[in-house]
Amino acid sequence: MAKPLKKLVSCVILDLDGTLLNTDGVVSEVLKGFLAKYGKQWDGREAQRIVGKTPLEAAAAVVEEYGLPCGKEEFLAELHPVFYAQLCNIKPLPGASRLLKHLSGHGVPMALASNSPRGSIESKISYHQGWKDYFSAIVGGDEVTAGKPSPEIFLEAAKRLNREPSSCLVIEDSMPGVTAGKAAGMEVVAVPSVPKQAHLYTSADEVINSLLDLQPEKWGLPPFQDWIEGTLPTEPWYISGPVIKGFGRGSKVLGIPTGI
User: Fold this and answer.
1) What InterPro entries does the record point to (predicted)?
2) Which of 43, 84, 133, 218 is deepest in the core (most CB within 10 A)?
3) The whole model's pTM is what?
4) Does 17 qualify as catalytic in the annotation?
């Protein structure tokens, strides 16, 4: 039976961390090491409070939460080299590579829009073969005046794709990202990164559990050919790294390393 068409779109704009890449394990290990120096233990209890924040907002939240004797800038500066040394260990989330390959193979224009700095985005995707070539545009948080939940980053992505905002489909995992996409006048599919929070994503046009659940034909895009109702497609995928208490498979723990 044909799926009802939600709205015809002609391009897709994706978030990176928490949507395409799983940075949980790496981020938690980096934070554990950093906080241990101050006699603190990272357990992810404040993760939901900083989900989707800008880098400095996220850093400020962690510094305040743990009462650290350093400023947010010092906090980020010390974490960066440790995190970047671990970029090669970040795996794609289930369905990410399948989706990118499928859309690219059918000539669907795609853009990346992340609050991470442009250089960080390019470094992360460089470890995943072919990913950089999939995207016609990449917009980093350091290329706009305001990050998500401001719509600016998505509007800039649409501009670089030479598409009207109303013809864009955004795929996001955070509430600030969903808010930004809707404010930009775009259709938004949410893939919540924090477990048991799907009920909060009411502003999204669709909420799915995983990229494996995305059905492009609902948006007028070419359907997957490996889709069988009630089953999962066959693809290599990874779930790795320690589980952070109260935090899911996303990556909104720390903005500058992980972005949104």
Assistant:
1) HAD-like_sf, HAD-SF_hydro_IA, HAD_sf, PGP-like_dom2, Riboflavin_kinase_dom_sf
2) 218
3) 0.83
4) yes
